Amino acid sequence: MNAAPASTMTCVLDARASLGECAIWSTRDDALCWVDIRAPAFHRFDPATGRNLTAAMPCAIGCFAVRARGGYVAALRDGIWLLGANGEPERRMIDAPYDTATHRFNDGRCDPRGRLIVGTMNEAKDGPTAKVYRVDPDFTLHELFGGITIANGLAWSPDGRTMYHADTETRTVRAFDYDLDTGTPRNPRVFVRWSAATERPDGAATDSVGNYWVAFYGGGKVVQVSPHGQVLAEHPLPAMCPTMPAFGGPQLRTLYVTTARQQRPAEELAQLPESGGIFSKGVDVAGLPEPRFAG
Which CATH number fits domain 10-282: 3.30.70.560, 2.120.10.30, 2.60.40.10, 3.90.1010.10? Predict the structure, then answer.
């Protein structure tokens, strides 16, 4: 196996998640909320106590957002759901706009005005048939764009006027001009592109000065990129499959990273036994508060 580089990150929750994802710091809960897509569940981790609340899902959960009216909104394989105060599924609001046998919802989060932007993935990875959608606060669904295989890396600049989005299969992150009034991304262009087998951009987050932090699934690190697309730093961790970074803690100066252990070789898991856990480290620059779903 390719050994992960020496890391300054510490495992704060040895969750052994199959596919830990969608790390979001909830200021309402003072906790890191996250999901396990493959062992489908919503989780809420309190770093102060070490307690991790778990709510099972009826099917794969790609992402979620904290809801301004209480509870959460989540994108499951079979559609958009409302979740209760502890993450328990309550009701499905929108049916999945794709064939659930071949596609599912994947990466997503709220834009600065409280709309849920969520992408899908083609699980066979045999073509760019995935799309990105917008869920408005009145629970209407709008297709934004397609032509991707695995939707990932969604984030916004601090002023909300640039949206970033990755297609993991093409190893490309694009930047869009984002219309905050209409929730419409326009003028796509390549922000940063990689080529190596281990340079697969997964989940991402932006900090308060506009840097873009993206997890490399299979690469064992989170990469920090400037607003101009220049790699500033690499942050390794003792797991080969980081999936999403999030800024949390009282001043949003703790970097949390979810990871996966699904389909990894036994030799690798023996050497990196905390794979599937949540890792953290202090950082010098604060993150951005996570917007809440306005519906």
Answer: 2.120.10.30
pLDDT tens, residue by residue, 59-109: 999 999 999 999 999 999 999 999 999 999 999 999 999 999 999 999 999
Tokens at residue 10, please?
Answer: 């510490």
What is the rounded distance in angstroms from the CA atom of residue 61 to the CA atom of residue 140?
A: 20
Residue 163 half-sphere exposure toward CB, CA atoms < 13 A: 24
Catalytic residue among 138, 202, 207, 284: 202
Q: How far apart are CA 261 and CA 239, in angstroms?
A: 8
268 membership: H or E segment, kind and range: helix 266-271
Residue 37: exposure state from Cβ atoms within 10 A (0-12, 13-18, ≥19): buried
What are the domain boundaries of the chain?
A: 10-282
| Active-site residue flag, 202 | yes
Neighbours of 117 (CB within 10 A): 25
Average pLDDT score over the chain: 97
> For 245-255, b where at least 16 C-beta lie within 10 A, e where not — what string?
bbbbbeebbbb
DSSP string, 51-117: EEEEEE-SS-EEEEEEBTTSSEEEEETTEEEEE-TTS-EEEEEEE-SS-TTTEEEEEEEE-TTSPEE
Structure tokens at 173: 């992150």
pTM: 0.96
- The separation between CA 160 and the C-alpha centre of its own chain, rounded to angstroms, equals 17
- Specify the amino acid at residue 3: A
